[in-house]
Amino acid sequence: MSLLTRAAPRRRGVAAALGAGLTALVLALGTTWFGGTAYAATLFSDDFEDGNSTGWSKSGGSWSVVADGSQAYRQTSTGADAKAQAGSTWTAQSVSARVKPIAFGNSTRSVGVAARLQSLSNYYSLVLTGSGTAQLRRVSGGGITTLATATVAVSPGTWYTLRLDAFGSSLTAFVNGTQVATATDSTFASGKVGLMASYASAAFDDVTVTDTAGPSNPSPSGTGQPPSPSPSSSPPPPGTCNTGGSPVGFAAVNAWGRNGTTGGAGGATIEVDTAAELITAIAQTGPLNICVKGLITVPAGMYNVSSHKSIIGVGSNSGISGGGFNIGLPIDDAITSPPANAVQNVIIRNMVFRNASDDSINVQMFSHHIWLDHNDLAQGYDGLIDVKRGSSYVTISWNHTHDHSKNMLLGRDDADDLQDTGRLKVSYHHNWFDETPQRNPRVRYGEPVHIYNNYYFHNTDVGVACQTDAGCVVEGNYFESVEEPVTNSYAGPGGRCVARNNVYTGNEPGAPDCSGTVEEPSAYYGYVLDNPADVKAIVMAGAGVGKI
C-alpha cells in the first residue's frame, strides 16, 4: 500500500501543511519533482500482497485478506451494509479497483467503489447491482440518489475493473475501461476513498487513486481471473465534439482586423487520438475543428498551433500529457508591432493538460483573438498559461488550475516594453485558481487587464500581481485564504490597479494593495458581473472539463 501527500510551496508567512502518511508505506508511485516540490500523480495504492489491510477502516460485514489468485480483500457477509475506507482528504480523484461480486442478497444489492468519502454515509459511488446495472450514486446522510445508470452484464465470480473519476463537479464512471455514465454534482468537494459491499459478498484488489485520470484500459495484476469483456458502448461518432460557443471579454472584440474569435468555424471537423495525428492537425493551414479523444501522450516539447483552429476535448478526460501548445511565431526582438502573419483566431476548450515539459499553453509574438476556456491544467514544468510579447485580445475563462506553482504569466520580462506596452489586453474570468501559489496572474505592461468573477482558494504567495506599469481592474472575485490577494508592489517596478467589489474571506485574508488609475474594460466590451458572494459556488460548479 502507498499513500503520497503533497505540500504547496510558500513564499512567506504561512507554513506548508504536510499530510501524515499511513502506516506500512512500502512503495512510492508516480512522483514527479518540479522546483523542489513533489506532485504525486498516484496518491494511494494497495494490492494487498503484504497480506494485511493496514490503513483500511471497516464498518459492517466480515473483511479479511485472502488468496484469490493473488491476495485480495474479501467481504463475505450478504447480511450487512459493509464498507471500508482509506486514504486522506483529496479533491481531484480517480479511484480504480478490481471488484469481483461473489453473491448478492437480492437483485437490488450492490458492490463497488466510492470517491470523496466524507463519512460512511456521505460519498459518491460507482456500483454493480445484482440486476445487471452499473449505477453512479450520491449517498448523502445515508440516503441514495442514483445520478446515472447503465446496463452491464454482471456475473458473480467475475472480476470487473471499476473506475470513478471526480474532477470538479464532473463525475465519470468506467467499467473495464469503457465509460458507462457521467453526471454533474457539487455536493462533495473532497474526501477519502472506499470499497462498498451492500448486502453482497465481494472481493477487491488493485486499488489505485490518482489525481489525474486513470488508464482507459487497465490490466489485471497477479494471477487472478482477468476482467470480463467490456460492455458495448456508443462512443461519439468520429469527427464530432462541441465546437459551438463564443467568448466574452477581449477575445470577442473587433480589433487588429478580426471581429471576434471563431476558431475553426467554416472548416472540417476531425477526430484525433494519437500524438502524430494531433501534432499534424494543429499545424495544418486553414480553419479546422480538432476533436481530441483521450489523454494523448506527446513527446516533450512545445507544438505550434496555426491560425483558425478549434481544439476541443471529447468528454471529460481528453487532452495532452508530456508537452504543450505554442500559439505564436518564433521569438524576434526586432519585431515591435503586430506582423501581418501573426497567429490568430485559436480556441482551446475542454482539454486536460498534464506533465508539460515546458509551458502547458504559451501565447507569444502578437498572437491575437485567442480563447482558452474550460480546461483543466496541472503538474506542468513552467507556466500553465503564459501570454507574452505583444499578444492581445485574449480571453482565459472557466479554467481549473491546480497542483502547480507558477500559474499564469502575462508579460515575460520588465525589458519587453517595446512589444508589450499598449497591448497584452486579456480578460480572466470564472477561473478556479485552486491552491496555485503565484502568478494568478502576474502582469506586466498590459492595460486594461480585466480580472473578474474568479475563485481564488488558498493561494499561499499572491493572487493578482500587477507590476511594471500594467493596469489591472480586479472586480467581483472571491478570495478565500489568500495571503496577498491583490498587489501592485509585488516585485520589481510597480503597476496600477483598481480592486472593487471583491470578497475576502478565510483564515488569512489580506487587504488589497492597489493604487493608481486604470483604463476601464467597459471601453472595449460590455459585461455583467455575477454577485461576488456567489462566485465560489458558480465557479466550482462550472469551471474545468466536462462542462461545455
Could you characterize the architecture of this molecule?
This protein is mainly beta and 548 residues long. Helices cover 4% and strands 43% of the residues. It has a 10-stranded parallel β-sheet, with helices on one face. Strands 1, 4, 6, 7, 9, 14, 15, 16 and 18 form a 9-stranded antiparallel β-sheet that branches. A 9-stranded parallel β-sheet has the order 23-26-29-32-35-38-41-44-47, covered by helices on one side. Strand 6 (63-68) and strand 7 form a beta hairpin. The longest helix is centred in the last third of the chain and has 11 residues, at 532-542. It is elongated. 55% of the residues are buried.
Coarse structural class: mainly beta
Strand order across the largest sheet:
21-22-25-28-31-34-37-40-43-46
End-to-end distance: 37 Å
Residues in β-strands, percent: 35-45%
Total number of strands: 47
Work out the helicity level: under 10%
Instruction: Estimate the mean pLDDT confidence.
Output: 86
User: Given the structure, what is the number of helices?
Assistant: 3
Question: How would a textbook summarize the main sheet?
Answer: 10 strands, parallel
Radius of gyration from CA coordinates: 24 Å
Question: Residue ranges: pLDDT <50 for 5 or more in a row?
Answer: 1-40, 215-236
Gross morphology: elongated
Assembly form of the protein: single chain
